[in-house]
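Subject: for your reference before the review

Hello V.,

The reviewers asked for a structural picture of the protein, and I figured it would be easier to keep everything in one thread rather than splitting it across files. Below is the amino acid sequence we used in the manuscript, unchanged from the supplementary table.
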Amino acid sequence: MFLAMATSFATSPALAGKYAAIVVDANTGKTLFSSHAEEARYPASLTKMMTLYMVFEAMQAGRITKETRVPFSAHAAAQPPTKLGVRAGSSITVESGIYALVTKSANDAAAALGEMLGGSETGFARLMTAKARQLGMRDTTFRNASGLPNNEQKTTARDMAILGMALREHYPQYYSYFSTRSFTFGKTRMGNHNKLLGRVKGVDGIKTGYIRASGFNLVSSVKTDGKSLVAVVMGGNTGASRDAHMAELIRTYLPKASTRDTGPVVAGRIVNAGGAVAIAGIALPKADVPTPEFRPAPIEVVTAYADAEAAVTPTQAEVAEMADEGIGQGDIDPVNTASTPAGAWVVQVASTPSKQQALSVLTQTSQRAGSILAGASPFTELFELKGNVYHRARFGGFNTKTAAFDACSALKKKRIDCYAVQQQ
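And here is what came back from the structure prediction:
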């Protein structure tokens, strides 16, 4: 009877080319049910799961806190509904942004968080995609932080299951946000779009999504009686039919799930206080585990230079390679000023995975450099190398090549790694 229902759901004319589903035993990584789970689909607001993953990552690393203010640019404020309606120039806390994404699925809050963490929403989308690869989401590409329509923003049910498990495994201290039933912003109360919360035993999140191109999507997490599932349904004709199908999947496959927790099933990492990164919780493939055959190297492997925070400085060979490939002429962070034109000599002190880290390195370098950089102007610059996104931390304002080289030599005497280069 269930198979007949699933077939009917999947072959409904309104769902042609949109339906996909997967149920994974989150205790073992075993796939209990799969239908079109490897086929490309539009994630819609399931995208915000990755946006939140990146927020949680930044919180755990200490780059932001739940009280950090999130500014709203004109771009963020202009996002179409669903939205909070925050005016450009105003701000909210990170925690309000989290609640807004979990409950109301606010597009403006997603864009604002993305800009804060990535310098621009486009830059943040690159970071999201790189993170997806690190987690083993082979078939996911992000182009924005919200899930608003974009023909190039694709995923699979399998990849969304991986992301759901990663959120639970890597950030258990923040995962409870997904079970929030409602959130009050100003005088407006916002209920969670996930209607299975409180209605299906054991469901504790995660996220709904809808755009016309995707149909109604849902990722659900279930924990009860020692059993654990992550299930994905994509392409529902209505929210109600999607929810009914998800509930039926849970009822059918929860009894088949194991009570034996064999450990993490998605690669994780820990950033220690010194900025070093260790891989933790790497699960070997088990029976039908929906994880990758290989583990891409993390994009945030960091090496500290002196006391600089989490700095990654490219080698001279990498600098030459970037020049050969024309890399380095991408988006310039607003911190940059007109006093650093193309061709001017600058001193680079770090290249980091995030804008916040780059700004922190600039601040620490300024404090330690004394009079060496007294007349220099700090700025960050976004660039991409071999599919990974980094943020250069640079000082401009040097009149000649000699001045830049002399400043760098003086910095090295203070054990501050650097090199002089012409601004592109």
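For the response letter, the relevant points are probably these. The chain has a mean pLDDT of 80. The CA atoms of residues 139 and 155 lie 6 Å apart.

Happy to draft the paragraph if you're swamped.

O.
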